[in-house]
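Late entry, written up from scratch paper. The run itself happened at the end of the previous shift, but nothing got recorded in the book at the time, so transcribing now.
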Amino acid sequence: MKKFSFDFEHQRPRISRREAIRRALYTASGLVLANHISFRAFAAAPAARAKAVIQIWMWGGPSHTDIFDPKPDAGYDYCGPLKAPIETNVSGIRIGELLPVLAKQTDKYSIIRSMTHGNFGHETASYLVQTGRQPGGRQVFPCVGAVVSLAKGYEAGYKGLIPPYVVLTEPQGRFDEAGFMGSRYKPFATGGNPAQTPFAVEGVVLPGVTDQRQKSRRELLHHLDTLAQDLPADPQIAANAKAENTAYDMILGDGAKVFDLSQEKAELRDRYGRSKFGQSCLVARRLVERGIPYITINYAGWDTHKENFQAMKRQLPEMDKGMGTLLQDLSERGLLDSTIVWWGGEFGRTPKVMWEAPWNGGRNHWGKVFSAVLAGGGFKGGQIIGASDAKGEEVKDRPVYPVDLIGSIYAQLGIDPMTKLPNPEGLPTFALPQPAEGIKSAGLLKEIMSA
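Output as recorded:
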């Protein structure tokens, strides 16, 4: 029997120390127990070329013309001081001058320069890019990560200690989560900062709690749990004990080791960059090695309304080291062929610079045309898809809509577009929009999809 007293001053229940320990343990155990719930929804899927996705989400909307679609001939009012794009290791492809590491890896990725949706709001554009659906409808649809966690995680017999959808490090909110599919498919957001030692993963162990203290707490729990001592053969108690063992394995055993970057060589950590983003890229590679099918790196700081070029000079070298080294590291370990790397944000930035106060060289939101990058997992490298016009303001050639990009990723993962999603209202809903939904599409990215 759980014992409660009531604190009338604060109007909330006060629980015993034993109950507090049990609740803390079961919170961790719940991550494990969730893996045993199943929802059968899948028809025969196409052959999969990829096993995992690392999504580098450029939170805020990065400037396409400063990064992967430079326009030096447009003049200073459009390119500002970033007017000298650099050659890459693929003849004919130039990218922003602050990306020397990525310039040496261009044979590994393809650039889409004609992404479009015409939406200029952060949340609504993010929802569009993450789900392929128009915002504002009756239902909130799941993002790509949630669908992959269903199709390549739980429905594929995933048994890992860590949930199949991980976000490094902060979730954005409802538009990168599970929508109507429910909490089981929400991402496991690590919190913390992998550039710090140790990397304290929130929701597993509280900051400041050492391994020895955690072991002592476990011993205290066992000492207090007289019911388990008296009824060791009880099925429910045995199931709880199994969940506890698995949870502690995540806290103190193999599950925790994936987040321990001290196991990596210092030289490799330096190549990734000792920034939060750089070390998040390294953690993402380690998660792929452990079989996690979907990892999102939420990379904030790209909403550059003010002083855009100062931000680019700070952040692009950081992005260049982290992403460039990730591609090289995955390739050297034989993981790039089975791992999709998807770079992009909710939109681009206004091609014409706002020099006047208070913007002082800023760029506003721009949903008419922007860039995305795809690498690995059956996508060819060293290619350009589509084009923007001379100033980067409109799509000039081969528009690519969010649903086209998402559908191409699903195809490489072997996810059937007619996969039924678990809708709580029983409505027929599928991984990709149906024609009746009126979503704009120009077709899959077959130009870069391996046959």
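The chain has one domain: 38-198+267-448.
(Scratch paper discarded after transcription.)
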